[in-house]
């Protein structure tokens, strides 16, 4: 196994991005798309790409369908410098339809969920995870069945566990084992009424760091010592907002590695980590791909 700074566990997908003037109303009607394109997607693929973009050696452990689409997606990731280990599933590769509005609003529709993971593939995934965790300085565990299956290995062996709970509302049961396993929690504030209060509660409960992105209002974080930081959203012309949160997370994690771990993100270092996240998110939203690295990768066959 090559050198690994961060193990990323979770999905890779093929995404059909359809841009509309506004999201459809909940009633029968016809709308015309402004554009549509098929791109590489998946929250874990995005994090791995943006970590590599920041000079971090990332190993991505991800599901792959038994079709040519899956092979092409992982080939594109490898061409960008991501060390990919495929966990083969039964059935086609994961596919999403993302409806995007001009204001950056999104509705994500699963056209094809990841298939079941055969027992032998899961055993191989556990072995790969154990080997990688022996040298990785952190693991990013995304919300997926594969990740949930590996929580025992991760909690036993990882130096630091980062979890992105996305638009968690504070109540959904699926998220709980991920939150319990985490040293660091990242999220967005779409469905959390008082995100700063929630982040402070996480840190008071023993988490090393809590971070929440707030869309056009920027991002906030609470460090291990209770220190609070906020940054404004970047003022740039947005090409495509898809993947901004994953890029932001990669920027924050890369800065944490630079200073010696999430527990050291306090005071100025906490603000600097949010600035690093903002800088990386800017690279994402000014690209038509999940990461600008993909703009220079060979086209998928």
From TrEMBL:
The keyword Transferase applies. Signal peptide: none annotated. InterPro entries: Carboh/pur_kinase_PfkB_CS, PfkB_dom, Ribokinase-like. Gene3D superfamilies: 3.40.1190.20. Residues 189-291 form the Carbohydrate kinase PfkB domain. The keyword Transferase applies. One of its GO terms (molecular function) is kinase activity. Keywords: Kinase, Transferase. PANTHER family: RIBOKINASE (PTHR10584:SF166), SUGAR KINASE (PTHR10584). This is Sugar or nucleoside kinase, ribokinase family.
